[in-house]
Amino acid sequence: MLDAVRLRNARNFSGGPGALPETILQQLHESMLCVPEVGMSVLGISHRSEWFAAVVAEAQRNVRTLLGLPDGYHVLFLQGGATQQFFTFPMAFSRPDGPSPEYLHTGYWSGKALAAAASRHRIEVAWSGKDAGFKVLPRARDLTLSPEAPYFHYISNETVDGVQFQETMGRDDVPRLCDMSSDFLSRPCEAQRYDLIYAHAQKNLGPAGVTIVVIREALMDKVPPGHLPEFMDYRTHAAAHSIYNTPPVFAIYAVMLATRWLRDDVGGLDKMDAINRRKAELLYAAVDGSDGFYRGRADAAYRSIMNVVFNMATPELEKQFLQASAQAGFSGLNGHRSVGGMRASLYNGVTIEAVEALVQFMHDFRKRHCV
Fold first, then answer.
1. 179 an active-site residue?
2. pLDDT, tens digit (0-9, with 9 covering 90-100), for 31-58
3. 10, 90, 101, 237: which has the fewest Cβ within 10 Å?
């Protein structure tokens, strides 16, 4: 039974919540019964305890270390997911009578972000990939962006559409905001060039329930006093060290373990990036070398290291693939409900061995169905 559970956990290619390394799952399993230094379950430890304050402090330090963050930034652990951030920063940093913030529309989730902002104030869509089916991305050199915009926003990796930026976008003289939910701490990042980075944890860093926000103090201080509800004000949570109200203790503890694993076991983001790129190379080689049996959706120049999206000749064949993959112990390979097809998410917790097993399955499935 335990071996079967391990296999299912290892072969979890879900778009989120995603796979976690077995060593972290084991620590979480043990902590649900008893955290040794406290003598009780993590699920019942007070968020006002010294132990939890130390957990938050280490998680913040780990994020700073992994990103190489300079002074002048706050690392916050918030609730509400990326969706709450879609509404929070437009309220914080743009004005109805001022210049419009600029957005890139590169897929499903950036569409959600710009719709949330547009419900508050005017926005400018600086580039859209809608007419191209969200299969391509703009190059930084090809964008014409305003120096007057209160901020510029984009999403670094589109989980649904399988495209990912490989360069930092935006102007250095305009606040740069980025949703990195699905590739945060999966690779090195020019963190000092961003004014706000946000990422919910359930892709690469833990279970659902906590969103990490890295925000430049100078940007945070631009919000006029009383302009935001207290709970949505970044300064409120910075002053309270992310323990303003009852936070998701278990989820933040998991993030602490995951960032410790990245720091100590993996050896940093350069090494994590090399592992993730190897996984993507293996899977894209299986798609590209299938003589059209598997059909990648994103343009090869822009496709994601994190989310490999592909289709097959017919919906019926795709259905057979998903059924057979589930029987073989794989999970989470169905594409997003908005686009269908298949998607294999290669988050930090997915091993090279799991990808090799998926590639072998894809090869065998193709042999059985090619005539």
1. yes
2. 999 998 899 999 999 999 999 999 999 9
3. 10
51 an active-site residue? Answer: no
- Among 135, 161, 179, 183, the one annotated catalytic: 179
Second CATH level (architecture) for the domain 26-265: 3-Layer(aba) Sandwich (3.40)
Could you give the maximum distance between any two Cα atoms of the chain, in Å? 69
- State the span(s) of the chain assigned CATH 3.90.1150.10: 268-369
Instruction: Considering the chain, tell me which residue range(s) the CATH 3.40.640.10 domain(s) occupy.
Output: 26-265
Marked catalytic residue, from 203, 233, 261, 279: 203
For the full predicted model, state whether its pTM sits above 0.85.
yes
Determine whether domain 268-369 maps to CATH 3.90.1150.10: yes
Residue 109 bears catalytic tag: yes
